[in-house]
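Escalation from tier 1.

The customer reports that the assembly of two entities below gives different structure tokens on two consecutive runs. Tier 1 could not reproduce it. I'm attaching the input and our single run for tier 2 to review.
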Amino acid sequence: MTLDRRTLLELAGPIALVVIAGLLCLTVSRTIEIYFLLAIISVAIVTSISVFVGNSGVLSFGQISFVAVGAFSSGVLTIPVESKAGVLPALFPLLRDHTLGNVPSLALAAAVGAVLALVLGLPLMRLSGLAAGIATFAVLMITHNLLREWEKIGPGATTLALIPETTGWLQATVGTVLVIVVAFVYRHSRPGRMLCASREDAAAAAAAGINVHRQRLFAFTLSGALGGLAGGLYVHMLGSITADQVFLDLTFLTLAMLVVGGASSLWGAVIGALLVSGLSSFLSESESGIDLGFRFHLPEGSRLVILGAVMAAVLILRPSGISGGREFSLDGAGRLVGRLVGLHTSKGGSR
Amino acid sequence: MSALVPHLVGAIGAQTIIDAIGQGSIYALMAVGIGLVFGVLRLVNFAYGQLIMAGAYALAYSSQAGWPVWVGIVVCFAVVLALSLGMERAVFRPLRSQSPAVMLIATFAIAFTLQAAALLIDVRDGQIGQPAASIASLNRAIVVGGVDVRKVTIVAVAVAIGALALLAAILGRTRIGLQMRAASSDFLTARMIGVRANTVITVAVLLAGALAAAVAVILTIQSPLVTPDFALIDTVVVLVGVVVGGIDRLWTATLGGFTIGFAQGVINGALPTDKTVFLPSIVFALVVVVLIVKPAGLFVRGRSSVIDRV
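Tier 1 run:
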């Protein structure tokens, strides 16, 4: 793994954005802070998805399963034992009688996500294309069904509540930066490069001696671990969760963030997550009316219509995403600034 | 095998089998709609369910306006066909050359937008859900040999058989049908020998839209309360069924849609009542197993190339 200045800069861009968002949490009211925290955690979730989907080119609808499992395992195990016997009487004794601290519960969330991804990935990673998309989707449906109905492992159809709200700006930022760094290191490592080669041409990669199944399985497991961690961060921010909150809507929203940003780069995943979350927060505030020099007030429920329409428009007008699949670079930033102020810089491209 | 059938019917119950056939027929209709568009565009249309939802709202609002049933059905077809055409022009056409993943996510976004828009329209009267009362009378049951057969089940099976026969005639006997078959087996070559892409795609989208409208009518009879997520889960299940059956060919896709509806009904009937909440887990676990064993499709003979192309 070689790290020259330009490569390190690719990492600095995403981290800088997340840290700025984290620090902004300190300057705003509690209601606005939640929007920032949600945006930062979206970055973690979308980055975890991009580790598999972005690098392998295989579409997976199942990654939110790992977020869900991480959220529920971390949540169930941090509720104090004395309240658990009352609210979740049907739990397995192992889950009912033990409570973990904050950091161990996050580590556990990552571990559970990884193990689940490894076990599921062993057969599933033999598939590609539509069959892979549908099989991973089936996994999401099964996860949701079990989390929602099986009262031995969770709250069933009710809300899992009383979870310690430990994810403030610090935990969200540190956790998300960790996810970004792991994703970055993986992408530039030997296995990451081999997987990217298989994305461009699976047959040629296999001919060059790459075991595509093994590389995909590795990325899937890593993605499961990061997704589980993101789920742990998420549940400790919310304080309560239902199985429906980590299901179809979140799957759609995070995949759209990934594609809007540009699926094949880390920078794309990060700006996609931040921009879509930002737009969503802005619209949701506008529904209760905000002051933009004039009174800006949207009808109740219009947030989702506008959000969906904007995402569809970006996909139609710029299918390779806002980042165009490129990583963050000063040249790119310079070109963007140049375009904004109307200067024409050389069209040489950054690479 | 033939001795097994009465035995199986005895074990599960004729009622379950009848209901499962009804469900399978509706899913087969939806599968044809999804398969037709996939054939010519290589596009998995996730927003197909929202076409059905829009048709169902058209029926609900027509019935609330006091219009006769046939007017409601005409309005339903008009709304769904117009929306299908709009979707084709605004979304499918600009994305035609994009990767299947981008197209799929784009139809996801459209589905999401339409559902949110429906909610916006629906809650104007202060509550979610609009009843479509006037056609609900078809939901009554008639008793045949000790088994309750709802009239709508008969309608569903009849419509499915009729629509499939009509479609087979169009595809097999007409010029445009021939062009559609050519386009779905190799679009580029078909265009080179003079098949007009836009015509073929428009016809496929309209046929799929007509099927969606028919499904909207049948589903509204079955469950008259129309909500923004109407037919959403059904569409998801059918999409899965279509891929499991083999999306590359219309007949395997249709059979896949029927099979998953039928299997769902039979498994539901066979499960003890307190375990039926786990029905999705069982059905989708079976789906995963089938996909791993036969990734190209359950009813596809030999190895198809669909997994490489998409």
